[in-house]
């Protein structure tokens, strides 16, 4: 028997993406690897309306339906959602509430939709405010960052444990990853931004009385000295009872999902490094990360270690420069990516996924596709795909590209 679920979108999702909200929701949902999901045949031509109930096909797996004046996304399952699948759906960046959709007939055999609430089970270890409290110019929106992380986690071949943002800024990606219980690592050339992100996280943990320890060290490289700041914390209790849900599922069906939530580990690591992203393989061993997530700079934000010397550069006791944000030469992030991809490829596991967002006004999709394939990545989406293209403002037309290390 087919089961239909309805999703009420987060109001903030429409505020962020405007007219592109529906398209991006479809693209994110289509990357999920749900068991027993009913899939439409590939659609051709314009959106097709399915009839009197007002259900509209908007993708291979997702529909749209208007109920009492509100727009819902709907999808069909051949079996009830497993605990792992419910968690995956609950964590989608556009999800606000989930319902089971049923149709009831009155005495005149007129069918009306009925929404049965399904409790979201995001399985977060921290409140979502860990990602929203810190405000600053140029911050990547939390919902967009969440979408990038979801894409990487959904498409990676292995269960995700370690996440890298090689252009982390003040750490939005890291905070989103911490919420999910991943070990998170970030690299950024701007020591001030790294310090602010690290200090914010440390203060957040102290105020929340989370048990943790911190460590700071310098790492000498040939051209400069990187600063490594690490926080290790005892993994807190999950905020929802996903384990209980999985136990109930096992009792009811006699079996548990193969993709059931992974057992708790003793600790989580959060690390921020002020250094050059080209040196990721100097900071981490080969095949360490499951997912790499980066929102490439839209303005003058990053430079490589080969940029011109500045006599005001900070130096360590041995006279080596300390990585910092000064005199960056170009708004175009392509040279940064081209120089860093060999290193990123080394530290990513086989079957791991890299997800990059960037400004199409500065870099064409073809240029980025060429760099990824040249450095050994396989494109997950067809060449020229426009599923994730959306306008942010007058100066930024943003897109997303996904590659996998085979």
Keywords:
406 residues; alpha+beta; Rossmann fold; 2 domains; 11-stranded mixed β-sheet; 7-stranded antiparallel β-sheet; 11 helices; 18 strands; 27% helix; globular
Oligomer: single chain
Q: Tell me the total number of β-strands.
A: 18
Average pLDDT confidence is 84
CATH architecture level-2 label of the largest domain: 3-Layer(aba) Sandwich
Could you tell me how far the N terminus lies from the C terminus, measured between alpha carbons in angstroms? Answer: 38 Å
The name of the CATH topology of the largest domain is Rossmann fold
Shape verdict: globular
Question: Care to describe what's here?
Answer:
The chain has 406 residues and is an alpha+beta fold. The chain folds into 2 domains: 3-118, no CATH class; 129-250 and 264-405, Vaccinia Virus protein VP39 (Rossmann fold). The chain has 11 helices and 18 strands. It has helices at residues 11-17, 21-30, 83-90, 129-132, 142-155, 172-179, 191-207, 242-253, 280-283, 334-347, 365-374, and strands at residues 3-9, 48-49, 56-57, 63-67, 70-77, 95-105, 111-118, 162-165, 183-188, 212-220, 224-234, 267-274, 289-295, 321-322, 348-359, 377-379, 390-393, 396-405. Strands 8, 9, 10, 11, 12, 13, 14, 15, 16, 17 and 18 form an 11-stranded mixed beta sheet that branches. A 7-stranded antiparallel beta sheet has the order 2-3-4-5-1-6-7. β2 and β3 form a beta hairpin. α5 (142-155) crosses α6. The longest helix has 17 residues, at 191-207. It is globular, with a radius of gyration of 22 Å. It starts with a strand and ends with a strand. Residues 41-52, 240-264, 300-312 and 325-330 have low confidence and may be disordered.
